[in-house]
Amino acid sequence: MPIGFHAAAFGYRRRSPVIRDLTFAFPPGRTVFLGPNGAGKSTVLSLAASVLRPQTGTVAYGRRRTDRRGDLAEYRRRIAWLPQHIESVPRLTAREQVAYVGWLKGMNRRDAWDASLGALERVELADMADQKVRRMSGGQQRRVGVAQSLVHQAEVLLLDEPTAGMDPRQRRVFHEILGGLDQHVLLSTHDVADLEDTYDHVVVLNGGVIRYAGAVRDFLALAPSGTAPGRIAEAAYYATVQEDAACA
Ligand SMILES: Nc1ncnc2c1ncn2[C@@H]1O[C@H](COP(=O)(O)OP(=O)(O)OP(=O)(O)O)[C@@H](O)[C@H]1O
Question: Is the Cβ atom of 41 under 6 angstroms away from ligand 1?
Answer without folding.
Answer: yes
